[in-house]
Amino acid sequence: MKTLALYHLKGGVGKTAAAVNIACLAAKARIPTVLWDLDPQGAASWTMSATATEAGKPKALWSGNAPIGDWVQETGRSNLSLIPADLTTRHLDIWLRKDDPDTLKQLLKPLSEHYALCVLDCPPSLSHLAENIFAAADRVLLPTVPTHLSLRALKQLLDYFGDNKLPRDKLRAFWSLADRRRGLHRALIEAPPKSMPKLLRAVVPYSAIIEKMGEHKAPVEDYASDHPAAEAYRLLWQEVKAELKL
Questions:
Q1: 42 — phi, psi (to 5°)?
Q2: What's the DSSP call for residue 48?
Q3: Which fold has domain 2-244?
Q4: In Å, what is the CA distance from 148 to each residue of 10, 151, 185?
Q5: What is the domain partition of the chain in residue ranges?
Q6: Can you say how many angstroms the Cα of residue 97 is from the centroid of all Cα atoms in its chain?
Q7: pLDDT grade for 63, boundaries at 50, 70 and 90
Q8: What per-residue confidence (pLDDT) applies to 96?
Q9: Residue of 71, 91, 93 lying closest to 82 (CA atoms)
Q10: What is the DSSP letter of 206?
Q11: 3-class DSSP state of 221
Q12: pLDDT at site 147
């Protein structure tokens, strides 16, 4: 099983939208996929119309007192399952052992019996959970808005990887919520900073069509497959598929 994390230190950059669209496109390609919502806001869970059950409360799982299968829910889509989040997920940094960055990696192992891909929708923080995510993921996908604030947060992450001698070759960036009508967005897309990690070709546009995922409770492909946003997510998925050799 390959593990893909959607992560950025800055919030509001389109992580959840990308995670949901990639997971649904993978499932559509008949790749058994599980989407794990690690963000206490639970936006991916809400988009997929799911809530955590009493049998799958986070503390029991992360302490090793419950099998991960108790958490997994079916989504009604072929080849796609979900591990939902709720507000108690905010305590993950307390439950995690500070000296062990491999807890998440170990929890993922049983899922490999049933799934070829796990997509992690991650909260925007540098924390013990983030350390676990970086250790577990085969690729860390960084949706980056073409703005200075988003690039500053990206640099903070790169500095963190350098200071802690983490493998930067896991990192892949792509432009997200991009508006080519804005001069700054256009300039950065055309001439990305040399310090960026490997930049994928997909450019996800800023679009009301993506915002309507909350209205449709579905990926863009379901209700606007001919829109440029859907095309961007399809390209992003193809690049991810090639990166992970799925």
A1: 65, 30
A2: T
A3: Rossmann fold (3.40.50)
A4: 11, 5, 10
A5: 2-244
A6: 23
A7: low
A8: 72
A9: 71
A10: P
A11: helix
A12: 97
